[in-house]
């Protein structure tokens, strides 16, 4: 199975910061990576699909990039509602998720 | 409005069974792949199983193969997960999700675009 290694596992940031989360696949997966946001007690919500396409209704401060094995989720100008846990997920074969990155308030 | 509503979770002893259900509304259910994704207490997300629109193809994570069965009834707009031989490690919130495919030339990439609120299955003696 394809493993997705996400880093960091947690980070502290302030409102207005630029935040970068990375995900590395154990083999090349083209651009088949999605990103989700999850808040406590809630179901995840899609943010980015196919590595860099913004899901409908998601603010433009969220962006994704990468192909092959290395992928990045960037949140520019972090807002209070962005404090949450973020997951990458590969869709190349038999879907697997990264371990998650918790974005906490500094 | 797309809605996915799960039910059927509960407390069961190791070795027991549970049948989860998901009732879909707000979209043409028979047009979409559907999936179950789970999340153990305090843990990350884990894909469990997928089923094709007509039920002709099914895929499972290795850990549940032979124990769990995904199925659907398009006439009832419903998705199911029959879970047998349950283990303590299967304790999790189980989410019903819709898979949306987006074509990029000759390639279609899928993501989970709608999620239910989840149903908790607890396996404990």
What does this structure look like?
Chain A has 106 residues and is mainly beta. Chain A has no helices and 11 strands. Chain A is globular. The model of chain A has no long low-confidence stretch (mean pLDDT 97). By secondary structure, chain B is mainly β. Chain B has strands at 3-7, 10-12, 18-25, 33-39, 45-51, 58-60, 68-73, 78-83, 92-104, 107-115, 119-123. In chain B, the strands form 2 sheets. In chain B, strands 2, 4, 5, 6, 9, 10 and 11 form a 7-stranded mixed beta sheet that branches. A 4-stranded antiparallel beta sheet of chain B has the order 1-3-8-7, with no helix packed on it. The interface between A and B is medium-sized, with 25 and 23 residues.
How does the SSE layout of this entry go?
The complex is a heterodimer of chains A (106) and B (125).
Chain A: E1 4-7, E2 10-13, E3 19-25, E4 33-38, E5 45-49, E6 53-54, E7 62-67, E8 70-75, E9 85-90, E10 96-97, E11 101-105
Parallel strand pairs in A: 2-11
Antiparallel strand pairs in A: 1-3, 3-8, 4-5, 4-9, 5-6, 7-8, 9-10, 9-11
Chain B: E1 3-7, E2 10-12, E3 18-25, E4 33-39, E5 45-51, E6 58-60, E7 68-73, E8 78-83, E9 92-104, E10 107-115, E11 119-123
Parallel strand pairs in B: 2-11
Antiparallel strand pairs in B: 1-3, 3-8, 4-5, 4-9, 5-6, 7-8, 9-10, 9-11
